[in-house]
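Issue 218. Parser rejects a valid record. Input:
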Amino acid sequence: MVNTSITAASVKLLFLASVSVFLISSNTFAQTTDQDDWGAPKVQVQQEKTRWTVVGSKNHVELQSSDLQMTVHTGNRTWSMMPSFSGDLIAEQSGERLPLRLADAGKKLITPYYTGFKSGLKITLAGLAHKNKEIDVQIDLFICLEGQQEELVCELIASEKTATVLECFWPQAVTNESFDHTVVPFMQGMLLPKDWPKQVRLYDTMCYGRGLYMPWWGHQQGSSAVLVLIETPDDAGCRFTHPAGGPTKMEMRWAHSLGRLAYPRRVRLCFFDEGNYVTMAKRYRRHVRETGHFVSLKEKIARSPLVGKLVGSPVVHTGILTHVQPESSYYHKDEPQKNHQFVTFDQRAEQLHQLAEKGIGRAYVHLDGWGFRGYDNLHPDIIPPCPEAGGWEGMKRLAQTCDDLGYVFAIHDQYRDYYLDAKSYEPRHTILDRSGNRPSGHTWYGGNQSILCSRLALGHVKKNYTALLNHGVKVRGAYLDVFAVVPPDECYNPEHPATRTDCLTYRGMCLDFIRSNGGVVSSEEPADWAIPHIDLVHHGPYALEPNPGHGPAMGIPVPLFNLVYHDALILPWSLGKGAWGIPESDLGYLHGLANAGIPYLSLNPGEEELARVRTMCALHERVGLLEMTNHEFLDESRRKQRTTFTDGTTVTIDFDDETLEISPELFGAGI
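Output the parser choked on:
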């Protein structure tokens, strides 16, 4: 008989023997197999006297240690950047603002830097001084080639001790000789030749304002391009100049956060041997998709089906009460009757009935001036609805009319402008700047105002929106004014401090509250940060001179925003020639078609307007949920253009002849 019993000790010995064999086998594998290609970029770092090079298989970067000038060589192009200059670092020590030069650091250490996915240099700068007095701050700069495309990632970290960093301009601007056009997401978008004959200025220069709807810009040189993509944009922007005749200078600007640089700042430079403004927009689109920032309209409709009713619908923008306070810049001293004008809620309802009788079966109705004292008054305390116009019951009837007609009823609202005669106004609730000053103004209809801290906005949104719903007003959406056009605020008030990042978070919470209560979410213009939160905007047109409203275009208009976000946001367009945001010699209708947006519709449209509205709505119904894949100029004048969408639809327009062609044709649509 065979003994089959095995003791516990025997099992342990067998296990150890097995493990030993496995370890020996693994060790043998490691000795005989080299792991040469493990995914890291094939980049070498070299030094020759004061010149360092980061050499990849596609691109290589040169750094001069003496002045920190960088030059990037790609397959067929050289991109040179300016050297360090006086004032490229602004520090503060003992309350004094001090302009410094990064390259003047008394202690400068440059070493190779590897992470396994990017390779390059670390530059440590210390011993900075102003008038022979050392400034107690250390700056670390990282320049690395990353990924298979060997994009140049530049990172800045400040170790702030008794001194702090207020601003830094690094990496430096691309030199004049390295480009012939600059591409800026200045409102909808601008292509600017280096020698453009007129002076050009940005309305503002921080990210998420009109100057930079999206946190990037770029340059073209012949058929090549470079994209400057800001990956930490909340406290970032640019410094921009273009005198008449040029040249253009656009440089990276890092701003402090509550008085300190505070956290690592990062910008990515992407190089294209064959590329232009469309290439740049598509690279940025890939970035927002990879980071999860891109939320498509299809996703927005899935989470809030009411948004689907806006596809192919016109926008009816109307109001109830216009009241202008004597302090307002808009006050009519010579015609006082213009300072208080209203129509009733019931009169507006009747006009909507008449619109429906003209064949408008669906629309988004945006209502201004519905509050107690009308448009841009008393915010954030605007309830109850205007008593002269019918009060609660009148507003309920108007909302019900919209519901009955199949229209989406939405209201204008405002939670940044803080009026001094609002019921809740207290100075302690406003933002304060670094010096403890409170902002003030009196431009808008409501007169004297300050700025409400963003940390306090959500409570007012809940208060007002809940009151409307509790009173039976069928509000289906809300437009929160200025949130998505004014760059984020800082607040130094010790009761409610807020960084710019905090401000964007609080604004986003306000917008999300509207959606959580079943509403369509809107704001003024399409600032990039707001895209995940909003469904549509008031407009997103082109930059004009002398102001955003009227005049000739600054530079050459290009649809950068829509090349990135056409299928993520619904964007309305005015139809008239030289309308708000439309270059004075252009027909807004053609811009609206090329951008495949939705049209504004007046309350008493004529046949021509109705025909144009139907055409735009039909086009939007076809391609409104699709990506704009291309934009191109078809002649040297750049007045004839074509856009293309994912399904192959093309829209060809000619601003001089005021003609259009949509292919495939929109059957049954009027023109």
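Fixed in the parser; the record now loads. The chain has two domains: 45-290, 297-663.
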